[in-house]
Amino acid sequence: xxxxxxxxxxxxxxxxxxxxxxxxxxxxxxxxxxxxxxxxxxxxxxxxxxxxxxxxxxxxxxxxxxxxxxxxxxxxxxxxxxxxxxxxxxxxxxxxxxxxxxxxxxxxxxxxxxxxxxxxxxxxxxxxxxxxxxxxxxxxxxxxxxxxxxxxxxxxxxxxxxxxxxxxxxxxxxxxxxxxxxxxxxxxxxxxxxxxxxxxxxxxxxxxxxxxxxxxxxxxxxxxxxxxxxxxxxxxxxxxxxxxxxxxxxxxxxxxxxxxxxxxxxxxxxxxxxxxxxxxxxxxxxxxxxxxxxxxxxxxxxxxxxxxxxxxxxxxxxxxxxxxxxxxxxxxxxxxxxxxxxxxxxxxxxxxxxxxxxxxxxxxxxxxxxxxxxxxxxxxxxxxxxxxxxxxxxxxxxxxxxxxxxxxxxxxxxxxxxxxxxxxxxxxxxxxxxxxxxxxxxxxxxxxxxxxxxxxxxxxxxxxxxxxxxxxxxxxxxxxxxxxxxxxxxxxxxxxxxxxxxxxxxxxxxxxxxxxxxxxxxxxxxxxxxxxxxxxxxxxxxxxxxxxxxxxxxxxxxxxxxxxxxxxxxxxxxxxxxxxxxxxxxxxxxxxxxxxxxxxxxxxxxxxxxxxxxxxxxxxxxxxxxxxxxxxxxxxxxxxxxxxxxxxxxxxx
Length: 653
What we know:
By secondary structure, the protein is mostly beta strands. Helices cover 6% and strands 57% of the residues.
């Protein structure tokens, strides 16, 4: 595999210096101010809570100012252009993450470690039910995360973490937050408010609410019709913290109404009522530090509303998920053993009911053990999963038993560096839509035909990483190769049914390989400001091994370069974000030209004795360039957003 390095360095000169410094040592950092001693953040989504240098696979954490800067209307919009991640971008109201070229049933989207209980993996026009206004932190694991989260995490995991169940007693008896944002020159606006209150010494109560309104967005060439959206969300929760454990519950409600652009524009109105629970027992047994449990249940409905105002199709989904984990330690060996179960009862009624009513049940046992000796850390894990898909109307069912194993080794050296290698073998059972679809799917302009004879797909994954997490120069390099046998995909046959192109699910062998680089360089402290540069690059190449042809909807090379100036009260960032041309196209797919965006953000804390108040100004696509998202099925009718100016404020106490 060859990488177009000359294109990378020409397009992203700001990245070359910090990347060179990362790979060649600390020479660049010798003239900079001494680095501040800070601990890397811990990823709670990882199989065991881990810092970035303890993981071989790539990861991203969005929180604090970075989360506020990238916060968007949808999860896909917010994560687009983070390393290794693109989005389906199906209009303004529906956008789901794509990780390393894989999406749908291969990427697991979670809310507080439990499923989002929506229909987003069925079709790109279905929204992810995870309100971005309430997100306190978003974690992304790139690469197989099947051990803890199931075979549908074969491509990666995104976990949206909020505070609907308090995770600690509020300081001084109460805490809260308020965020407001408006688009300058437009009627777009959104807001979110939350408050936590202590009742006595052990009980914490939580309440939150949010709203979002967007009018039809504007691209560089004009307004994109039928892209307006609005959403409302709210939640109440409580948690009890005792000496021997904790317990918490939350109830939430989400409503959204948004347009889907296209030749036959429709609107989608969705609503979800959800119940979540979390429990933990501290030190219940010798060598067991905690037994913890999570569960969630949701009643999800959405209507696809025709231009006439009539409901064309109604989707209903009743689903639950539970997990039980025991964290333990025996000498130098620490690990987790657990159980996970879930059920999805799906029904579609109407003209676009291309998938019959079906029930999917899944249960799994998993174990992961980590051993440290000197600079070495070793991890070994396995998962055994049973899945059954039933279609009552056809008196049909398929069941599968899948296994996954993973082994990794990490070596720390030269004080600040860590190198690692991970090998994973995973199996994924086909989803209900891959097995039993049969009908018109207008959102993708296709007539989808499932294949009830599909078997399991198997992936052999190898990944090598190099990290530097401390000092003035930090960053990471990941190189990965995933080799699929019996890869499940939908391809157009060339025939038509009901005036739509016929899409048939089948299996082949496929390869995904790529590279991701991130680097940051704190090069100077000046006049109270910390000055730094950062950059990133991601590249993935995927092809059908049976004929060496490219697979469709694979993102092009992504590049990012940024300059930051930060003080206690003022923060400035200017960045360029690029997608190069994608001319390696699959069947019935057209090439997509590249583009480069210029973004800027400014935050100001006017009161030094009240740092919880921040004023924000953000400019996106400042040069108003035209561009199209290659991974979007609507790239021709819904190009990327044009210039936007956003002003807002955030208060925390």
